[in-house]
Amino acid sequence: MTTTTCTSDARAATHEITTELAAYATHSRFSELPKRVQKEATRAFLNWIGCVLGGCHDPAVEAAVLAVAETGGAYQASVIGHELRSDVGSAAFINCMSSSALAYDDTHLPTVTHPTGPVAAALFALSEKQPVTGEEFLNALVVGIEIECRMSNVLLLPPSQSNLGFFVTGLTGPIGTAAAVGRLLHLDEARMRSAIGLGAAQAAGFRSTHGSMAAAFVPAHAARSGYSAALLASKGFTCSDAALEAPKGFIDVFANVADPSHAVEGLGQRFEMLSNAYKPYPCGIVIHPVLDACLEIAASLEPGIEPSHIALRVHPLALTLTDRPSPKDPFEAQISLQHWAAVSLVHRAVGLRYLQQDCIDSASVSALRKRVSAIADPAMQRDEAVAEVTITGGRVLRAHIVHARGSVERPMSDDELDAKFEAQALHVLTEDLTTRLRHLCRDLSSLENVGRDIASIWA
Amino acid sequence: MTTTTCTSDARAATHEITTELAAYATHSRFSELPKRVQKEATRAFLNWIGCVLGGCHDPAVEAAVLAVAETGGAYQASVIGHELRSDVGSAAFINCMSSSALAYDDTHLPTVTHPTGPVAAALFALSEKQPVTGEEFLNALVVGIEIECRMSNVLLLPPSQSNLGFFVTGLTGPIGTAAAVGRLLHLDEARMRSAIGLGAAQAAGFRSTHGSMAAAFVPAHAARSGYSAALLASKGFTCSDAALEAPKGFIDVFANVADPSHAVEGLGQRFEMLSNAYKPYPCGIVIHPVLDACLEIAASLEPGIEPSHIALRVHPLALTLTDRPSPKDPFEAQISLQHWAAVSLVHRAVGLRYLQQDCIDSASVSALRKRVSAIADPAMQRDEAVAEVTITGGRVLRAHIVHARGSVERPMSDDELDAKFEAQALHVLTEDLTTRLRHLCRDLSSLENVGRDIASIWA
After folding, report:
1. pLDDT at residue A459, rounded to an integer
2. Could you tell me which of A118, A102, A104 has the C-alpha nearest to residue A58?
3. 8 A C-beta contact, residue B240 and residue B197
């Protein structure tokens, strides 16, 4: 431990990344963003608000709303999908929980960070308290997502020795969120360094909470923590100016060994946002290539033909994160490779309805779940999978997905994203309001007042 | 990393510590506590509220109060020393920050956890919202401190491989606080397990924030996080039932290797609270034996005799945590071994006034600071130090402190604690109110309604 910590210190000393990231956050402008990044930020926001509307009545959110109602904050922002209004931090907390609750949110593929939730939730709630233009909003969103994903890279890309049990969105979400909110609060560089440091000081979360409501709690907490960090910094609250890279700082404790240049190399030129992907399926992203493969096989099956065994070959991370052969409830089913493989072949479709308890407990799905075997193949890409399905009579059907739908190489089209948005928004909005909201989101960069204009949909 | 994690999992599997701690928290009773523990809980509370009053106008607290005022929570609890009232979580946040701001709070010596701050702050704020008897309050305080300190033991006692850069109060404070608040909210065992897990999911903080306002932010955040965990659990929000010991859980990510039996062995029989100590000096506790030694030497010096060099031999942790030869501001001076050694010989006294900028910058103190040499001696105890002071003419005076004042072996007496309390309370209260508050705290176990009775002092 001592040796590796020293290595980390030595490397970290070569980059003052807290300072560099704070300077970037303070001075970034929408007009200087590449058009492709501007557009991707808009897509990220549309996907996010769709997930908020889809998840806002999840049991986790309903319980959390009761807790927030009891604290009674100022009526600054919408708790989306609920009558309640609350202070910015609490609204950010709940709205991010809504967007995370169904595991349908976006994913920075190199690190499995879910970047937009904490950042967008805090920015949106703040934009209801103070006027924020569409361009300012999107610029801050990019700032937050870049810093969040770059810090995730520091923690997870070589030579990091981070414990994979940490829930990376909970670690880096508060940092990116603090920077993004700090941008809208017009912090100077010194206060931005404090905001980033105070965000890092709230880094929290581990993956054993997956399979419970707390899986959505960790990103939600990140949203609230990041907002709190920037708000404190705006009042003159200080933090170490090198909280990220100092010995006994963020990188030291969470990565042991790391290359801090991941945080700053090509900053403002090369965008991690372009490695962000949207989920076509409401489950852990590492399961997605398996579902593409199984659905391809399912589509070729004649009616009445039943699968008797599913053999999968997947990237090792898919098993590390989602090897749950006997999920007992929707939380566990959401991140069960075996559940979804079985569902895709029993029902020949994948969707939110297959997360309900009666589906999880059904004889057909649970029987096939037991006959799923999966092996980890380090030679595979994360968005790659091979499925071999044995059917009646012993014949084996095979599908090999090289890039999953919703991956960077095979991104969801605008139309697919719109369809995903609408299916979720219609849970709580009329068809007319859903369409109006979709147009507002697609035109986000031209809005004069993001909070006022969008909140008018449910006001 | 993989190997050590496996070891941790194997050990953890032998104890269901989340379940065992939750059962303890749910069923503990004041009447079953040893008298010595009941009394120590009262002393811990008196010391805590004194530190709140002494620190409540620290610049960190003033800045944080501005931030809390902007969120505008319900008027549930006192922000002590300020006009503002706020929701329980925010009041817990500020009041714990006040008690931590001057590094004058208590310390669980085996782990350098500062246990009372987060737990007492959350309990006290909640006791203003709902009636809580003195016995209930003290019992919950013991529950919280025991669980917090026992989890610190898991992280820091052998065979742990925890990174010492983590700020342990920030990691275990939310767990103990969640359990303590959960006790007052009358959670059943299942909800108590969730509260403990949600507390653990907010574990946060690293030591590079020392030397800035964020050093007081980390325990303050722990207080708010722990309250939030218990509040959510009371509304039915769930967490993994094995969040502490599961693979990819709290112990796995924060200790790598650990012995979870530290958490539960002798629970309710052997009390970590009895290893909790109060500080006679407003600085990092590892500096204290040095100050005892230097003050002993200073007391023997005739007027006009000047020290020219200070040679110290200390436990290695003293250097790890407080080796700061050139502190630039009060935050750094608070945890500078060299600063305090110099102060104790230049001014022949130690106290809050020597944390002011003019003292830090004074020629006499800064000159002597440069002539402090310190070596780490692993053979020394944590509360042991040797000082050798060279004075005019080359003579060397030596003092060897075997147990520092305020250590478990040489605890502060009730009178010393009262005097420490009064010196701090008089910053904000009249002499009469200070005396009344001291009596209320000393009689805490007999109060009918802790929040009402104590808050009447400043109402």
Report:
1. 84
2. A102
3. yes
Condensed to tens digits (0 to 9), the pLDDT of residues B396-419 reads 999 999 999 998 889 999 999 999
- Cβ-proximal residues to B406 (8 Å cutoff; 6+ apart), any chain: B277, B278, B279, B280, B281, B285, B288, B412
Amino acid found at B329? D
Distance, CA of B92 to CA of A388 (rounded, Å): 56
Q: Report pLDDT for A14.
A: 61
- The phi and psi torsions of A122 (rounded to 5 degrees) equal -70, -40
Q: Would you call B170 and A201 a contact, using CB atoms and an 8 Å cutoff?
A: yes
Whether B7 has a pLDDT exceeding 60, the answer reads: no
A8 reaches B (C-beta below 8 A):
no
Would you say A52 and B37 are in contact if contact means Cβ atoms under 8 Å apart? no
Cα distance from N-terminal residue to C-terminal residue, chain A: 55
- Neighbouring C-alpha atoms within 13 Å toward the C-beta of B166: 29
Of B155, B160, B169, the residue nearest B96 (C-alpha): B169
Q: In terms of pTM, does the model score above 0.80?
A: yes
By C-alpha distance, which of B387, B397, B273 is closest to B341? B387
Q: Which residues share a beta bridge with A374?
A: A312
Nearest chain B residue to A66, by CA = B235
Name the closest residue on chain B to residue A210, using Cα atoms. Answer: B240
Dihedral angle of Cα A230, A236, A241, A246, to the nearest 10 degrees:
-70
Residue with tokens 């105890």: B381
Counting every residue, how long is chain A?
459
Q: In the structure encoding, which two tokens stand for residue B176, read together?
A: 């103990």
Interchain pair B217, A197: CB under 8 A? no
Amino acid at B210: H
Q: Mean pLDDT across the stretch A121-135?
A: 98
Give the Cα separation of B183 and B229 in Å (integer).
12
Q: Distances in Å between the alpha carbon of B401 and those of A373, B291, B313?
A: 65, 9, 11
Are the C-beta atoms of residues A212 and B238 closer than 8 Å to each other? Answer: yes
| Residue matched to tokens 């962000």 | A276
* Distance to chain A for B17, nearest Cα, Å: 15
With a CB cutoff of 8 Å and minimum separation 6, the contacts of A70 are B74, B87, B231
Distance from the A373 Cα atom to the nearest Cα atom in chain B, whole angstroms:
22
Which pLDDT does position B6 carry in this prediction? 34
Q: How far apart are CA A343 and CA A360, in angstroms?
A: 9
Cβ–Cβ below 8 Å for A73 and B72: yes
Confidence of residue B14 (pLDDT cuts 50, 70, 90): low
Tell me the chain A residues in contact with residue B1 when contact means C-beta distances shorter than 8 Å: 161, 163
Please report the number of interchain residue pairs, chain A to chain B, with beta-carbon separation below 8 angstroms.
Answer: 214
**CA proximity to B111, closest of B157, B174, B142:** B157
A59 vs B contacts (CB less than 8 Å): 236
